[in-house]
Design brief:
Number of domains: 2
Strand content: 5-15%
Distance between the termini: 23 Å
Largest sheet: 3 strands, antiparallel
Radius of gyration: 16 Å
Oligomer: single chain
Strand order of the largest sheet: 1-2-3
Order of helices and strands: HEEEHH
Helix content: 25-40%
Number of helices: 3
């Protein structure tokens, strides 16, 4: 697991990557219904879409109101998460002192 955490730190430091941790202490949040990916395309004529992952495969949502809803959910979750720098610091701490041995907790 340390190797995986170290790789996350490495990738999180890339200029085109933002990694943020959403601590359990945040509790219930807007994205608890399930995982989703917002796919944005630069080419004119290629509409942005939301892909929702579920047990039977997935679903693509293309309507603008659906896209706005998921962008809003993403913004809410991102605002509740630790900053990118704080997230990297938290992962670095876990590399040195695994959570199951730690007395520290992230409070958000």
């Amino acid at each position: 697991m340390r190797g995986q955490l170290t790789k996350l730190i490495e990738v999180a430091r890339l200029p085109n990557v933002t990694l943020q941790i959403l601590p359990f202490a945040v509790g219930a949040h807007a994205a608890m219904d399930g995982t989703f990916v917002i796919l944005e395309f630069e080419e004119e004529g290629d509409a942005d879409v939301v892909f929702i992952d579920n047990a039977t495969g997935g679903l693509f949502l293309e309507k603008s109101e659906e896209l706005r809803k998921y962008i809003s959910i993403f913004d809410i979750v991102r605002a509740a998460a630790l900053t990118a720098d704080a997230s990297i610091e938290w992962i670095e701490m876990l590399v040195e002192e695994p959570l199951w041995k730690s007395k520290r907790r992230v409070t958000g």
